[in-house]
Specification:
With 347 residues, the chain is of the alpha/beta class. Helices cover 36% and strands 21% of the residues. It has a 6-stranded mixed sheet with strand order 9-6-13-16-14-15, sandwiched between helices. Strands 1-4-5 form a 3-stranded antiparallel sheet. The longest helix has 22 residues. The radius of gyration is 20 Å and the shape is globular. The chain starts with 12 loop residues before the first strand and ends with a helix. The N terminus is likely disordered. Bound molecules: zinc ion. One of its GO terms (biological process) is peptidoglycan catabolic process.
Amino acid sequence: MFGSNLQLKINFRIKFIVFFAGFFIPFILNAQPREVVAKKGEGVYRLLTRNGLSASEYMDAFIELNKGRLGEDNMLFAGAKYILPDTEIDPAAAAETTTSPVKTARFDIFGEDYAEVEILDDKLDGAIYYLVAGHGGPDPGAVGYYNNRMLCEDEYAYDVTLRLARELIEYGATVYMITRDQNDGIRDESYLKPDKDERCYPNQVIPINQLRRLRQRTDAVNNLYRKNRGAFQRMIAIHVDARSHGENIDVFFYHDRRSTNGEKASRTLQNKFQEKYDTHQPGRGYHGTVSPRALYVVRNTYPVAVYIELGNINHFRDQQRFILPNNRQALANWLTEGLLDDFDNNK
Ligand SMILES: [Zn+2]
């Protein structure tokens, strides 16, 4: 997980959570609602799965039950209580999970508040992700202004990428953060302070020259790819560029022209976004596309690659959304769900 040379103290602790089948059943019979508290950074999907409920089965019921307690796009508020939908517990199945070990691992790169990660299941066991947050080091990427504050693409792309990394690890994936910042963990602030100390995996200073910068991250990915040959591997590049895409914060997916698998993976992600927007914001319309594009990192890295443009850092409406940490988390959650589908379909 992350590789030992990442200075990430991996500290597996086994805790035991005991589910007493006999404890839950009276709750169900008495139709007592089960209340749970949302954790920091958690979405509906995660909250349901953490509580042993299938998200696809119970998502709608959950949203219905908790109307009025949810934020925009059905965001959860950390620390708030939510009601879980009634479930039919099969006592035999419950008995089998009487003692379920919860593994936690520590990754300092996520910052103090998020360093401790619970490994919730092994759905992505065997999958390896190289996550490349766009730009970094001396290159801030696209720059926008909002309320007289400077918004730098590299910081916002990095925050979403870190959140994505953490989600993937929760599902048992192996994740390499290719762009890395030793002191910016996941940040729950609106304005992410720009800095220039990002490094390239494992700990290389990022050069100013664009071609050298892109070659450096490409080499970092390809060296790891060779070591992991034979495994399911994906390179995911994340940007928040300044190209004009109209009104909405649509998310665009790009792949290498020659890569059928890159196109397939891109479509799987796009479908997930389409589905999410249809469910959570019907009528809003989602116009994100999948297309081939000649991008250095996508062309030259060996793993199946998807390049994602999350929106426009210069566009007011996109800015309003990006500065909300919950929205950055939602993007990471949706990408994770798309990558779960991608792994299921293509492993
Ligand atoms: Zn960019």
